[in-house]
Amino acid sequence: MSFSDESPPRWTLPPRIKSWSTSPRKLGVALIGAGLLYTLSVFSFAASPHATSVPSRINNTFIANAAFQPPEPLPHRYSDTTDTFADYKYRNTCNISSLDLHAPFAPLCPDRQSLITAMSSGGRIGNDAPYMPRGCDMRWFSTEEICEILSRFEKVVIVGDSMMRHVVGSINVLIRKDLGYGAVTDWNFSPEERQDCFCNYQFNVKACSVQGIFRTADVIKNDPESVACPVDKVDVT
């Protein structure tokens, strides 16, 4: 059985899981995942024999005295300014937009070091506000761009504690285009688990997180149709 916003789970969701709340931990996980993907993209570009320095761009949308400048009107920033979750499963039920997590501004960080500095010294301006890197912005990639970035590497290995486990889960949310169950092994869930581990709670509830996806190879083996990337091009563990 397939699940989508048009065919939601057949139960009444408890109040605690009616939306994907943007808690500091959730923002941290999402932004670490996004930052990792941006770092991988910069790394793979820099490693290319055809790579050149990132050219400076003139931002024609400059606003005098604004705290944050609008993003550059360039094609590669389009996904930064739109809700890339719009066609994800359970987008409306989980009630989260990619713009809730990332508010784009100019300029982009030109290299890895400036990105690391900006991410480590940024913050949020207000409760539930998007995280803002300091000094320069990161990219927010579409799923298609994520697939292309990951395909440049034979394997991407993420090493660390439970936070890194959630980063792997968040990457699987993005490449499966599934906000409801993208981070967990929903193909073997009972009806109760499908209810308890929905949206936020695939990360929040311990009984759900232990059923998190640790390797994309497991998804490809058990539910290959849920992967938006070419299955022979992506290997994250």
How large a portion of the residues is in β-strands, by DSSP E?
Answer: under 5%
Major sheet: 2 strands, antiparallel
How far apart are the first and last residues' alpha carbons, in Å?
Answer: 27 Å
Low-confidence stretches: 1-8, 10-19, 45-58
Shape: globular
N-to-C order of helices and strands = HHHHEEHHHHHH
Give me the secondary-structure topology.
Blueprint: H1 24-47, H2 91-94, H3 98-101, H4 112-121, E1 123-124, E2 131-132, H5 143-150, H6 162-176, H7 191-196, H8 201-204, H9 206-209, H10 216-222
Antiparallel strand pairs: 1-2
Helix pairs in contact: 1-4, 1-6
What do you see in this structure?
This protein is mainly alpha-helical and about 240 residues long. Helices cover about 35% and strands about 0% of the residues. The protein is built from ten helices and two strands, in the order ααααββαααααα. It has a two-stranded antiparallel ribbon. α1 packs antiparallel against α4. The N terminus is likely disordered.
What brief labels describe this structure?
237 residues; mainly alpha; two-stranded antiparallel sheet; 36% helix; 2% strand; globular; disordered N terminus
In short:
The chain is mostly helical and 237 residues long. The protein has helices at 24-47, 91-94, 98-101, 112-121, 143-150, 162-176, 191-196, 201-204, 206-209, 216-222; strands spanning 123-124, 131-132. The protein is globular and about 55 Å long.
